[in-house]
Design goal:
This protein is an all-alpha fold. The chain contains eight helices and no strands. It comes from Chryseobacterium glaciei.
């Protein structure tokens, strides 16, 4: 998946079904529906949460993580001085600054491809400059190690 900005969950589910080599009769049986209804899900850009949860279980893949990464990358940074900070909630609280390998790879690739520079990523995604610099150095070292192993 190249971009976390535009999520087409039906297409992603179809891709995972193909990769997992799960037969359509098994999928139909799991969802208690017809092949046409499964095809409609594949064509749908979005699905209800309980349907995505079922797909996640069947395909052993967390499709919700894609949405979480979208929130990390594209939601506005929270204001530490906001009045909302003082309000408490019974809902679970999550840290926004936990980045997956996929997100790190995505951002580093944006820099290395020249699509965005570091300042644009810092401004757009709210990634601290030191964190972004550490990722690019680590990624560059990782790529050099892979190259050295291949030439040995």
């Amino acid at each position: 998946m190249k971009s976390f900005k535009n999520i087409d969950v039906g297409n992603l589910i179809r891709q995972r079904v193909t990769e997992s080599e799960i037969e359509i009769p098994r999928v139909c049986n799991f969802f208690s529906c017809t092949e046409e209804e499964i095809e409609e899900m594949y064509e749908s850009k979005s699905l209800e949460a309980d349907t995505i949860l079922k797909w996640s279980k069947l395909l052993e893949y967390d499709f919700f993580r894609i949405y979480s990464q979208h929130l990390i990358l594209f939601s506005p940074p929270s204001n530490a001085y906001s009045a909302d900070r003082e309000k408490t909630s019974a809902l679970p609280q999550f840290r926004k600054n936990i980045y997956t390998k996929e997100v790190i790879d995505f951002l580093v690739e944006l820099i290395q491809s020249g699509e965005k520079n570091m300042n644009e990523i810092i401004d757009q995604y709210g990634i601290p400059k030191t964190t972004l610099h550490r990722w690019t150095v680590k990624y560059r070292n990782h790529e050099l190690e892979k190259k050295n192993k291949n030439t040995s």
